Automatic annotation (TrEMBL):
Pfam families named among the record's database cross-references: Na_Ca_ex, YccF
Gene: Vnx1
Principal subcellular localization: membrane
Domain Sodium/calcium exchanger membrane region: 345-465, 568-710
Protein's name in the database: VNX1 protein
Annotated membrane topology: Multi-pass membrane protein
Organism: Sylvia borin
Length: 719
């Protein structure tokens, strides 16, 4: 400590010393997100991994801040989920598993979930691109439909009040922005609607013509009115269908969800009110506060932040893709002769359906792990963590075995290699690029990344050991050879060469290669378990995870989980079952694509089959990178790659023991070189514990170069 001449400023000196300590840790370790000391402010975002030092605490508390990373969350369940994100072998999940307190949300998010019944002090200009898009997509024909319904109601004479309502709503839905729809109370003196002079309508147009005022006693009930019966039979169903179409279309476009809310609220509230209780005004002509309940008040038709919108904790993209799963299953199993659609369409639908199912499986795993103890979470992650990929691989191998087609086994090997290369190069590289655009330099926990890197080296060496063994001791067999020099002793040009392991009745394979495969398949899961024990038991300090006892103001909330454990378990099982069905459909209809496509089967397996199931994980990694938490972005790719080598491949080998298939743990030279080069490059990039968008660009470019190699490579033998 530096002596202070003032003598009475010990508190400020301690605070500055704490700042210097935490800043030093931030520069040296770059560990797990934003490190540093933060004073507790009421509006600090709740779900942030930080090293917190309370201002009122002593200097000893600050020293604990130096060696541990504090997780601050709204409740214990959310803190448990954040802690699981840093545990090796656990699925990394960005979305909340509990409902966030309303007061802790930003104003942008609050606007997403608010009903369209709030009047702002200053709405600003309503002439925006989104509002013009609404006019072009929905406004003009919806307004025209209201005019037609109004004319129909006027023709019935008895439905004239609803005709006037539809006429006013035609102008409203043509351009609803800057207007308000209210529900007004009918005075007691006017509860009996009789023809008389001086009565005026509650609509925008002023006095109602006498011929429209039909006798309708309110005391007998609104639904007994003759005009209401005509309206419900002729006008209302047509408008419900129109608004339903608008609602579904706007919801699927996501950015136009306010239009979907507008249509849903109009159908359920406005069109079911008596005409005399509906009031339409322009906001500039409205006095604040308004008399009566505000039903609709819309300013913007589009909001780009609706990609954050969630329904019961489920992202809106996953909600919108869920009907695709039902369409895929119905179309795939009902139209098995391909009368309605071809195999290419069904394969594409089945592959796209895997994305939302992967999201639901990830959400269910994260929810169960956050609400359970460590043992249950570890079992659930180990059991269902790789279920998406294994389901597809096993169904493909079964189909290949039944048809006697080796091409399916080669496609599975390509998908395994593509997942490994993509998670080592593309996932962290893309996260570095996107995160580097916002942050000039990002740091990560090099020690935790080193554990994953060591396991990757071990796993890659073990997986490709049988391949290298076969290259050394196998017999090279070529499909066709041509003499280049026309000399029997000259040079020969050979095609479709491979190492034959079945020479001499398969003595080499059954006596040497197959025992080596079984040995590797036992050692790799054992190494994975040792890695779990190392990171989660004996060396937990690598991650420096600590749940803070310092609660921020406003964070004393009980956990309101989106999915309970039983609900998450049911969703997990149903999603796994649907995943199996979609994988079966994908493998059923991939055969025409493999045989008729001009693209190499290597490329199809490495790209489409490998990376589509990993899209939810890629999105999670990008979100972590944008929050300057690159450690989790890197761990997402590393953990998937480690699980491919140490869990998925041994499980496939174990499966072939009980159900013989064409799958052997002998890969092509292209797979071996691409995987080893990717792992070496990744370790070189991650040595110093910091990165920027340039290093991420290098990883992404190398990945695309490897994709180009696979694209121009000839198809594997047997396809």
């Amino acid at each position: 400590k530096v002596p202070d001449s003032r003598g009475d400023s010990d508190g400020p000196r301690r605070g500055s010393l704490c700042d210097r300590h935490c800043a030093a840790i931030n520069n040296v370790q770059g560990d797990l997100g934003d490190l540093g000391c933060h004073l507790h402010r009421p509006r600090v975002p709740p779900v942030v991994s930080t090293s917190s030092c309370c201002q009122q605490h002593s200097e000893e508390v600050c020293e604990s801040c130096v060696v541990k990373t504090t997780l601050t969350a709204e409740n214990a369940v959310e803190a448990n989920k954040l802690s699981n994100n840093y545990k090796f072998g656990f699925k990394k999940w960005k979305s909340h598993v509990t409902a966030r307190p309303w007061e802790d949300r930003s104003e942008i998010v609050k606007e997403l979930y608010s009903d369209l019944n709030v009047i702002r002090g200053s709405g600003g200009s309503t002439l925006t691109c989104g509002n013009v898009l609404y006019l072009l997509l929905f406004g003009w024909w919806l307004s025209f439909l209201y005019i037609l319904v109004a004319a129909m109601m006027f023709i019935t004479v008895i439905g004239a009040p609803y005709g006037q309502l539809c006429w006013d709503l035609a102008g409203y839905f043509l351009w609803p922005f800057g207007k308000v729809i209210q529900k007004v109370e009918v005075p007691k003196s006017h509860q009996v609607c009789e023809a008389g002079v001086g009565e005026s309508s509650a609509l925008l147009r002023g006095p109602t013509p006498l011929r429209w005022r039909l006798r309708c006693w309110v005391g007998t009930g609104y639904w007994h009115c003759a005009s209401t019966a005509v309206w419900l039979c002729l006008g209302y169903p047509v408008l419900v269908l129109a608004h339903g179409l608008v609602c579904v279309t706007a919801w699927l476009l996501i950015v136009l969800i306010p239009v979907a809310k507008l249509s849903a609220r109009a159908t359920s509230r406005v069109l079911l009110l008596p005409p005399e209780r509906v009031l339409i005004r322009r906001l500039k002509m409205t006095e604040v506060p308004l008399e009566g309940e505000v039903i609709l008040c819309c300013y913007r038709a589009a909001n780009p932040y609706y990609y954050k919108y969630a329904v019961d904790g489920i992202n809106v993209f996953a909600v919108n893709l869920l009907p695709l799963v039902l369409v895929t299953l119905v179309l795939g199993y009902v139209d098995s002769p391909n009368h309605l659609t071809g195999s290419a369409v069904k394969f594409t639908l089945a592959l796209l359906s895997i994305m939302p199912l992967s999201y639901y499986i990830g959400m269910a795993i994260a929810s169960i792990s956050a609400q359970s103890n460590f043992a249950v979470g570890a079992v659930v992650n180990a059991t269902f963590g790789s279920i998406t990929e294994l389901t597809f691989y096993i169904t493909a191998l079964i189909k290949g075995s039944r048809e006697g087609n080796r091409c399916y086994a080669e496609v599975v090997k390509s998908a395994l290699t593509g997942t490994l290369v993509g998670c080592v190069l593309f996932v962290p590289g893309l996260c570095m690029v996107i995160g580097g655009i916002r942050h000039q330099e990002q740091r990560f926990n090099s020690r935790s990344a080193g554990v994953s890197s060591a396991l990757l080296f071990l796993s890659v060496g073990g997986v490709f050991a049988p391949t290298l063994f076969s290259k050394v001791y196998g017999k090279l067999v070529c499909g066709e050879c041509h003499n280049v020099t026309q000399n029997p002793l000259g040079h020969y040009l050979c095609h479709n060469c491979h190492f034959d392991l079945m020479d001499n009745n398969g003595t080499l394979y059954y006596s040497h290669v197959q025992p080596l495969v079984y040995t590797v398949s036992i050692l790799l899961p054992a190494a994975y378990l040792i890695g779990l024990f190392f990171t989660l038991k004996t060396h937990t300090h690598i991650y420096d995870i600590h749940i803070s006892d310092c609660h921020m103001p406003g964070h004393h909330h009980s956990a309101v989980v989106h999915w309970s454990r039983w609900r998450a378990l049911v969703i997990l099982l149903l999603s796994t079952l649907c995943m199996s069905a979609c994988a079966d459909l994908a493998t059923e209809h991939i055969s025409p694509i493999l045989t008729n496509s001009t693209i190499s089967q290597y490329f199809i397996g490495v790209t489409v089959l490998a990376m589509v199931p990993e899209l939810p994980e890629i999105v999670n990694g990008i979100q972590f990178a944008l929050q300057n938490n690159l450690s989790l972005s890197i761990e997402i790719g590393n953990c998937i790659a480690v699980q491919v080598c140490m869990l998925q491949i041994p499980i496939l080998v174990l499966f072939t023991i009980f159900y013989p298939t064409n799958f052997t743990l002998v890969f092509s030279d292209l797979h071996v070189y691409a995987s080893m080069f990717s792992v070496v490059l990744m370790n070189y990039i991650f040595m110093d514990g910091k990165c920027d968008y340039f290093q991420g660009t290098v990883l992404v470019m190398v990945y695309f170069i490897l994709l180009a190699v696979y694209f121009f490579a000839p198809s594997p033998s047997g396809c």
